[in-house]
Task: inverse folding
């Protein structure tokens, strides 16, 4: 055909018949049916004709139909310039770090070299019909040039992702089809296939559209390892609520029947549970029940002992983060006598669904005359020892409201309250009255050490005289005074004046005064009315009056619920428990766990008093490594926040361990914004060490999915399954019509006219 077309076919090496019609296929099909019906009807109409006459007329009708079809279809010849390309055969060699592990007298990498030597001669023979492509495999597939480069560099990939490697060579995005894929690997995948479920790989394997030759290296029977495989725990827990933590332990080549699994919180051992080892099921599980006693971010560690001859020791422990939050705020309120201030606060605490309140108050004053003891006059005995020893740690906040400790022999327990604040992170609120502060003899006691005010040694008389509160610059920005009804100064101006005041010697170091008396003095400064302090791990609040209930009167008189009073105490509770929502400094680690050698990235966000992003704040970051012998500072950084109130700080070269990062920030005017902390882990084991067991069964399952083969010994490569992957690519094409439509129409007219003339002559028209 190319010779017949002569000069028009020059530059083309192939041809085929084609249809050049532009009519839609449904139209062509309908016309074909119409022509066929025309032939049938014509034949039926000629039943009375002689056989010869019928044959001539039907033949003419058939030729006319064919000419009509030719005119409509416009047959032609398509000239093509084609290139025949060979298919690919991809050879993937696992170069991840687990391939460097010992396997008997050799390493897995050396055994991979032996398997390559077995396959190489047959692959060279196949190179006559397919192109051999070589890849080193780790996180993906990296092509290499030549056999020498395939095994030259030692295996150092930090992760095995076999599915990502197979997906990278799949015949898509213009890649030629595959004849087969050979995968030389230990099967120690630590990505999607780490769970051991080969079905996760089915979509990727089927996308290859070629058989997979699985060539396993590494003998599982030679692998000896005891590892923490998984820790199953919620990301957060509720304080004082029991949670369950499940630790999965994998044991391979271990003769022991059980191993002890230890759960630690820092240097403190929480529990030790024995996990039973079953040779038929290499994964054992140990369950722990743990009740966190305090809120915050914790780093817990699960670990098993290191046994002799283990292939990997870095995977014998695993740290994980647990965020302990409150489901309810547990408050202990102890009041010295009934009062309006005590009543309004107790009603608010009882009505607040987020508060679990335990309230004690005394129904008579110390001046009441009676010939009976306090215990005889109590509805129930005041449980001093129980509350301030065994039960104290179960509370979040202790409120001492106009309470004198001395009649109840509480002096022995004041140290416990101090430790509750400084060591356990609890909140202490002392509310004024004639039985509070120095009037109650708290000066010189352990509680005085944590209060935001200095009491002095001599008692001071409780003052009764109306006064209007004055707002300090710090109080204007502090979240406790965010009363929610406009600017705090104007809100306070609309509230009734107070009348009671406890006088003190001064303000404690590190304390912040929010509200002051307009003219009474405490040393050189105005007397504080509301002051706060962060001390140790906890916080304290001093309200040096018993008249905050006055702030309810304007609303209550009009049928309201005392918004200012309720908002003040709601904010105070949240501040005392360090509610993260009130923090003006937020610290967050980019990841909870970093691989060894990775750079830790920490991001700090700061906001102003209106909780808008605060730029130009100076951030100070300290990173400490938590360890049994005491925390050790690992790094210190500082930065300035950008226009979005954010600063990113990076800490490189951290040794494996558990870390706590603590950030504080100061605004450009020198005022402190607060602080926050977060925890993260730098793993001792890389992913290649945590899942290093050879898994030939996984490779075999992938081979079966692709109708491939498991190559476990000497084999003739030519006998392994493969598909014909040759492909024909058309670089240029040209269409030429077979005849001119004008002559076809003239021929059709002549034939149709002849049929009509014969039909009339023979009497059929």
Result:
């Amino acid at each position: 055909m190319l010779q017949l077309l002569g000069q028009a076919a020059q530059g083309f090496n192939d041809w085929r018949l084609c249809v050049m019609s532009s009519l839609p296929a449904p139209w062509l099909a309908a016309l074909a049916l119409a022509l066929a019906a025309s032939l049938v009807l014509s034949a039926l109409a000629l039943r009375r004709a002689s056989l010869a006459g019928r044959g001539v007329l039907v033949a003419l009708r058939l030729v006319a139909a064919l000419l009509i079809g030719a005119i409509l279809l416009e047959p032609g010849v398509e000239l093509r310039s084609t290139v025949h390309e060979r298919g690919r055969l991809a050879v993937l060699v696992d170069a991840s770090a687990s391939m460097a592990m010992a396997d008997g007298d050799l390493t897995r990498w050396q055994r991979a070299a032996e398997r390559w030597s077995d396959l190489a001669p047959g692959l060279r023979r196949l190179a006559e019909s397919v192109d051999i492509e070589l890849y080193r495999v780790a996180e993906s597939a990296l092509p290499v040039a030549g056999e020498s480069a395939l095994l030259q560099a030692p295996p150092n990939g930090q992760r095995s992702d076999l599915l990502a490697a197979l997906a990278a060579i799949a015949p898509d995005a213009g890649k030629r089809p595959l004849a087969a894929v050979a995968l030389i690997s230990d099967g120690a995948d630590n990505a999607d296939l780490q769970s051991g479920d080969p079905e996760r790989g089915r979509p990727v394997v089927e996308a290859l559209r070629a058989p997979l030759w699985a060539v396993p290296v590494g003998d599982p029977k030679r692998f000896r390892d005891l590892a923490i495989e998984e820790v199953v725990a919620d990301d957060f827990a509720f304080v004082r609520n029991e949670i369950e933590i499940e630790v999965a332990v994998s044991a391979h080549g271990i003769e022991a029947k059980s191993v002890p699994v230890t759960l630690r919180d820092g240097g403190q051992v929480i529990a030790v549970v024995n996990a039973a080892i079953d040779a038929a099921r290499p994964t054992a599980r140990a369950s722990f029940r743990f009740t966190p006693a305090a809120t915050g971010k914790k780093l817990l560690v699960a670990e098993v002992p290191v046994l002799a001859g283990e292939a990997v020791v870095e995977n014998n422990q695993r740290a994980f983060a647990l965020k302990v939050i409150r489901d309810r705020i547990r408050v202990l309120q102890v009041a010295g006598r009934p009062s309006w201030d005590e009543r309004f606060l107790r009603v608010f605490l009882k009505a607040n669904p987020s508060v679990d309140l335990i309230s004690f108050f005394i129904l008579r004053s110390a001046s009441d005359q009676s010939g009976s003891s306090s215990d005889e006059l109590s509805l129930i005995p005041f449980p001093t020892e129980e509350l301030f020893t065994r039960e104290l740690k179960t509370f979040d906040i202790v409120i001492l409201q106009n309470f004198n400790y001395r009649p109840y022999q509480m002096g022995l327990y004041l140290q416990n309250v101090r430790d509750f604040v400084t060591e356990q992170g609890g909140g202490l609120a002392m509310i004024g009255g004639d039985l509070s502060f120095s009037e109650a003899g708290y000066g010189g006691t352990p509680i005085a050490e944590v209060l935001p005010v200095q009491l002095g040694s001599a008692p001071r008389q409780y003052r009764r005289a109306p006064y209007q509160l004055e707002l300090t610059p710090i109080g204007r920005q502090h979240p406790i005074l965010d009363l929610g009804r406009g600017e705090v100064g104007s809100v306070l101006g609309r509230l009734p004046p107070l009348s009671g005041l406890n006088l003190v010697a001064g303000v404690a170091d590190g304390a912040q005064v929010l509200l002051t008396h307009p003219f009474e003095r405490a040393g050189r400064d105005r007397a504080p009315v509301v002051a706060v302090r962060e001390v140790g791990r906890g916080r304290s609040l001093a309200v040096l009056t018993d008249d905050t209930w006055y702030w309810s009167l304007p609303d209550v008189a009009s049928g309201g619920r005392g918004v200012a009073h309720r908002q003040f105490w709601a904010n105070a509770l949240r501040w005392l428990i360090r509610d993260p929502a009130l923090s003006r400094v937020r610290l967050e680690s980019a990841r909870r766990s970093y691989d060894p050698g990775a750079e830790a990235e920490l991001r700090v966000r700061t906001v102003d008093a209106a909780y808008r992003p605060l730029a130009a704040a100076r951030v100070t970051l300290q990173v400490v490594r938590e360890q049994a012998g005491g925390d050790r500072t690992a790094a210190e950084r500082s930065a300035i926040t950008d226009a979005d109130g954010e600063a990113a700080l990076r800490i490189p070269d951290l040794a494996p361990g558990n870390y706590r990062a603590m950030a504080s920030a100061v605004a450009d005017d020198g005022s402190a914004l607060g602080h926050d902390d977060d925890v993260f882990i730098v793993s001792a084991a890389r992913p290649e060490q945590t899942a290093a067991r050879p898994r030939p069964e996984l490779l075999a399952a992938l081979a079966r999915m692709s109708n491939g083969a498991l190559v476990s010994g000497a084999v003739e490569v030519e006998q392994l399954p493969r598909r014909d992957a040759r492909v024909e690519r058309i670089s240029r094409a040209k269409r030429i019509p077979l005849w001119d439509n004008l002559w076809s129409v003239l021929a059709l007219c002549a034939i149709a006219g002849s049929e009509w003339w014969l039909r009339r002559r023979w009497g059929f028209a």
DSSP finds 18 helices and 39 strands in the chain. Residues 365-372, 374-379, 556-560 have pLDDT under 50 and may be disordered. The longest strand covers residues 75-85. The radius of gyration is 44 Å.
